[in-house]
Specification:
The chain is of the alpha/beta class. The protein is 28% helix and 27% strand. The chain has three domains: 113 residues, 3-Layer(aba) Sandwich (Glutaredoxin), CATH 3.40.30; 178 residues, FAD/NAD(P)-binding domain, CATH 3.50.50; 105 residues, 3-Layer(bba) Sandwich (FAD/NAD(P)-binding domain). α6 packs parallel to α7 and α6 packs parallel to α11. The longest helix has 18 residues.
C-alpha cells in the first residue's frame, strides 16, 4: 500500500487503472478503525487493484475539488473514472469487499473468497464492544485469569473516542481529550491480557449457543458473552440525511470540526451533546446556527448559558429540520417553525447532527428481553434474559448513561462471571 499526495493523484490514481483511495485524518477514530480493514482488503485484492492513502488535512485543495467532506472517505476508480459512490464514516470491511468484487472478473473474485479459510476459536468470556464498559469488563476478567476475547467493529474506545474533552472522570485533575482517555483504558486492558479482535465485521451472533461469527470466516465460541455494544447517534430520518452523510453532514465534531475553520455551520439539537459539541465547533467555525425543537435549550444550565453568551452562536428555537439539500458549495436545511407551521431554509458550509442516541442492538434481534426503547433488560448482576449472557454500559436499560456508570456495569459483570466460572 502506498501513501500519495495531491501532486501524485493524477499519475497514480487517474492513470493507474483500478485504484481504491482512502482519504484519512488524524485524531479520527473512524479512520483508525478503517485502517486495518483497508490493509486487509488490500492484501486480498492487491493483485488486481491498487490501494493508496491520502492524508486529508495535508491535501486540502484536492479534498475540496473531490468534495470529500467526511473522515474517512473511500473512493473507487477504474481508468480515471469513479466506478462506485464514495463511502464515508464507519466503513465496514464488507462494503469495501462488495465494491472490489464488482471491479474485477467474477472468477478472480471467487478465487479470492475461496482462499479465505474458516477459523474456530474458543474462549471463556467474549465481550462484544470496546467502550468503557467492555474495557472495564475485560480488565477485571483478565486480572481474574479468565480467557477473554474482546470484539469490536471499530477500534476500542466507544463514544468517548469522539468526545473532545472529558472533565468528570475521577482521577484526572485536568480535562482529558476523549481519545486519550479511551487510549489509556484500552492499553491497560490489552496489556493485562485481553485478546483484541477489533475493526471487524460481526456477521452473526447466536446468544443461545454462545457463538459469534466475525468477518465471515472466524467463529468464536464462548462460555459467557458480555454485550457492551453501546449506543449510536440517532438519525433524523429526513430526506437528504442518508445521501449526504459524510458529504456535508457529520455526527462527530472531534473528527470534522477542524475542517470548518472560518466557515459557517448548522448544529441540529439542543441537549447536552449538541451544546457541548457546538462549543467545540465554535473554536473553528466563524458562525454557528443551532436548530432546536423546544423553546429553550435542554442541556444543563451552565453549558446552555455558555452557548447563549457565545457571540458566534445563534439559535432557531421551536424548529425542526425537514430536509437536507446539497448545493454546489453549501448545505441547505429546510426547517419548519413548529409554532407558525411555516417552512424556511438556511444554508451553511456543513451540518452537524446531535439529537440523542439509540441502542446498538440490531445484531441481537429479538433474542433478549428489552425495554420499550430497545435497551437490554438485566438484573443487578448485569445478567440478561438468556443464561450466560450479560449486558453492560449504554446498551443496558438504565436511568443514567455516563462513562462512570458504564465502567461500573463492566466491573459488576466481570466479577459475577469470574465467580461463576
Amino acid at each position: 500500500m502506498k501513501e500519495i499526495n495531491e501532486q501524485e493523484f493524477e499519475s497514480v490514481v487517474l492513470k493507474g487503472g483500478k485504484v481504491v483511495v482512502d482519504f484519512y485524518s488524524t485524531e479520527c477514530p473512524p479512520c483508525e478503525a478503517l485502517a486495518p480493514k483497508f490493509e486487509d482488503v488490500a492484501n486480498l485484492y492487491g493483485e488486481h487493484i491498487s490501494f493508496v492513502k491520502i492524508f486529508r488535512q495535508g491535501n486540502r485543495e484536492l479534498v475540496e475539488k473531490l468534495e470529500v467532506q467526511g473522515s474517512p472517505t473511500v473512493l473507487f476508480y477504474d481508468n480515471g473514472k469513479q466506478v462506485a459512490p464514495m463511502i464515508s464514516g464507519g466503513i465496514k470491511k464488507s462494503e469495501l469487499v462488495e465494491v472490489c468484487d464488482s471491479m474485477i472478473p467474477a472468477e478472480a473474485s471467487q478465487k479470492i473468497h475461496d482462499s479465505i479459510k474458516p477459523v474456530n476459536t474458543h474462549c471463556e468470556a467474549l465481550i462484544i464492544g470496546g467502550g468503557p464498559a467492555g474495557l472495564a469488563a475485560g480488565l477485571y476478567l483478565c486480572q481474574a485469569k479468565v480467557n477473554t476475547i474482546l470484539v469490536d467493529i471499530q477500534l476500542p474506545g466507544g463514544q468517548v473516542s469522539t468526545t473532545h474533552q472529558v472533565s468528570n472522570y475521577p482521577g484526572f485533575i485536568e480535562p482529558q481529550p476523549g481519545f486519550m482517555l479511551s487510549h489509556f483504558m484500552s492499553e491497560q486492558t490489552k496489556q493485562c491480557g485481553t485478546k483484541y479482535k477489533v475493526a471487524v465485521d460481526v456477521a452473526q451472533v447466536d446468544l443461545q449457543n454462545k457463538t459469534v461469527v466475525i468477518d465471515d470466516y472466524e467463529t468464536i465460541t464462548a462460555e459467557k458473552i458480555v454485550i457492551a455494544s453501546g449506543a449510536s447517534p440517532r438519525p433524523l430520518g429526513i430526506p437528504g440525511e442518508k445521501e449526504y452523510k459524510g458529504q456535508g453532514i457529520s455526527y462527530c465534531a472531534t473528527c470534522d470540526a477542524k475542517y470548518f475553520e472560518n466557515k459557517e455551520v448548522i448544529v441540529v439539537g439542543g441537549g447536552n451533546s449538541a451544546v457541548e459539541e457546538a462549543a467545540f465547533i465554535a473554536k473553528f467555525a466563524s458562525k454557528i446556527t443551532m436548530i432546536h425543537q423546544f423553546g429553550e435549550l435542554t442541556a444543563n444550565k451552565q453549558s446552555a448559558q455558555k452557548i447563549i453568551d457565545n457571540p458566534k452562536i445563534s439559535i432557531l428555537f421551536n424548529s425542526e429540520p425537514r430536509a437536507f439539500i446539497k448545493e454546489p458549495n453549501k448545505m441547505t436545511v429546510e426547517y419548519e417553525n413548529l409554532e407558525t407551521k411555516t417552512r424556511e431554509t438556511i444554508s451553511a458550509d456543513g451540518i452537524f447532527v446531535f439529537i440523542g442516541m439509540q441502542p446498538n442492538g440490531s445484531l441481537f434481534g429479538t433474542q433478549l428481553e428489552t425495554d420499550d426503547w430497545g435497551y437490554i433488560s438485566t438484573n443487578e448482576d448485569m445478567r440478561a434474559s438468556i443464561p450466560g449472557v450479560y449486558a453492560i454500559g449504554d446498551i443496558r436499560s438504565k436511568k443514567y448513561r455516563q462513562i462512570t456508570t458504564a465502567v461500573a456495569d463492566g466491573t459488576i459483570a466481570a466479577i459475577d462471571i469470574s465467580k461463576s466460572l
